[in-house]
Automatic annotation (TrEMBL):
Record-given protein name: Aminopeptidase N
Signal peptide, first to last residue: 1-24
Transmembrane residue ranges: none
Organism encoding this protein: Streptomyces cacaoi
GO molecular function, one term: zinc ion binding
């Protein structure tokens, strides 16, 4: 049958077979979630975002937000379609300049079908035009867009992004950001990183912020309102930009007395964690009341309530500690939250000691003694607390006790080497609890499985107080 090879049609078929290896499948849809067991729908599969360019306009009177998000993405598979996480109204989507089809499903998924499939490794631009009134959009019964009398704020964890920009909403996919927002003259816009420029035209002022280092979606923030903005420089030349709502009332003094020490606190943290990982710092306090502060990258969000009783440098220490533990080194999955909260809380204990208040060991002992053995507190495993207990006190306090137990087990020398080494080991990337345990074992030369089992995973009160039996 050799002669059949001379038939042109068969030749073409044969060369086609050669060009397309048998293993190359048809392009397939990207997964609608990033595969996080806590939040299966958060994030998406099939692509990575390297940059978000958000060009928006916001009207504080009506809470209307509108504009364009341009995502620079790389396909990680042959991709027929992919999802974005987003909850506002999409007007149109273009992929590589061509109009794409899209449908919305659930409260925060947009399914995008490009005119042409993307090949694995292909770079693409995704342009999303959108609008909405974020405070009116509820997902799972809440909104993370906090309306204030003079504007609005997006800050929450893990959900915040989909009220203001379409994204691949999982900390595994970090990207750089340009955030440009036009607001009526006299209103201010706060976001992450450095303020590149600010220009007024026809009654609107456009604020251009840039955050260069890889940044998780939930650490991206936007605040609009009447702010007093202060600018300073650290001794190493980094810009310190703080912003205070003009409406903080009696909280203003304490808020300023706390945030104005951000530079000093950051330099103090550098002694433990190594060089500050970003090119700007600061903090902001909008006129909204929440029960939490948040380590939004380079520029944490604080609630006025954090300053209800006077200055609170401890919360500044906590949020700035996250810049290393959480922001530069991000979680691989939400179960790894201990690496963020345990170390941020432990930093507060070190600060207390530095300030001549209680020592870290005293605070560990106190936290240990404050919860009786039958207290539900001990049922929460900081090393895998479950989505409902992600921000349970146990993640913070038992989490910090675990850090003290580690210190007492490996000794100060190895402990402080781990504390400083970890943020550089994974700078700008992602890591999980197993990675941390392996790293601590490598640096200390000790087997630490039993210690971490007891402090991070066992659903009951560890027998030994943090100090007893653990001295190096
Ligand atoms: N990471 C924040 C902090 O360190 C906690 C955010 C809690 N978020 C929430 N919705 N309760 O303080
Ligand atoms: Zn925290």
């Amino acid at each position: 049958m050799r002669h059949r090879l001379l038939i042109p049609g068969a030749l073409a078929a044969a060369s086609l077979l050669l060009a397309v290896p048998a293993s190359a499948a048809e392009p397939t849809p990207g997964a609608p979630g990033a595969g996080d067991p806590y939040y299966p729908e958060y994030g998406n599969g099939g692509y990575d975002v390297s940059h978000y360019d958000l060009r928006l306009k916001y009207q504080p009177k009506t809470d209307e937000l509108a504009g364009t998000a341009t995502l620079l993405v790389t396909a990680t598979q042959d991709l027929s379609r992919f999802n974005l996480d987003f909850a506002l109204d999409v007007g149109s989507i273009r992929v590589n300049g061509e109009e794409a089809r899209f449908t919305t499903s659930g409260a925060h998924e947009v399914e995008v079908t490009p005119a042409k499939p993307l090949a694995a490794g292909e770079k693409a631009t995704v342009v999303v035009r959108y609008s909405g009134v974020p405070s009116k959009v509820e997902v799972n019964g809440f909104t993370s867009w906090m309306r204030t009398p003079d504007g609005g704020v997006a800050a929450n964890e893990p959900e915040a992004a989909w009220w203001w920009f379409p994204s691949n909403d999982h900390p595994k996919d970090k990207a750089s950001y340009d955030v440009s927002v036009a607001v009526p003259d006299g209103t201010q816009v706060i976001s992450n990183g450095t303020l590149q420029s600010q220009r007024s035209r026809a009654g609107w002022t456009r604020w251009n912020w840039r955050s260069r280092a890889p940044q998780a979606t939930y650490l991206s923030t936007l605040a609009i309102g009447k702010f007093d903005i202060t600018e300073d420089t650290t001794s190493s030349g980094l810009p310190v930009v703080n912003a205070y709502s003009k409406d903080l009332g009696e909280h203003e003094g304490a808020a300023r007395a706390s945030l104005e020490r951000t530079g000093e606190i950051t330099e103090w943290l550098e002694r433990y964690f190594g060089p500050y990982p970003f090119d700007a710092l600061g903090g902001y306090v909008p006129n909204t009341d929440t029960t939490y502060a948040l380590e939004t990258q380079t520029r944490p969000f604080y609630s006025p309530d954090d300053f209800a009783d006077g200055s609170n440098t401890s919360v500044v220490v906590h949020e700035m500690a996250h810049q290393w533990y959480g922001d530069s080194v991000s979680l691989k999955g939400w179960k790894d939250i201990w690496i963020n909260e345990g170390f941020a809380r432990y930093s507060q204990w070190l600060w207390s000691e530095d300030q001549g208040e209680e020592t870290a060991q005293e605070l560990a002992d106190y936290a240990y003694a404050s919860h009786k053995a039958d207290d539900d507190f001990w049922k929460v495993a900081p090393g895998d607390p479950g989505p409902d207990n992600q921000f349970h006190a146990a993640v913070y306090d038992r989490g910090a006790m675990a850090v003290q137990a580690l210190r007492n087990t490996v000794g100060d020398r190895a402990f402080f080497t781990i504390l400083k080494g970890w943020p550089s080991e994974h700078a700008g990337g992602n890591a999980d609890v197993d990675d941390f345990i392996a790293y601590a074992e490598k640096v200390s030369g000790k087997r630490l499985g039993t210690l971490f089992q007891e402090w991070l995973f066992q659903p009951s009160k560890p027998k030994a107080p943090a100090r007893a039996g653990f001295s190096a």
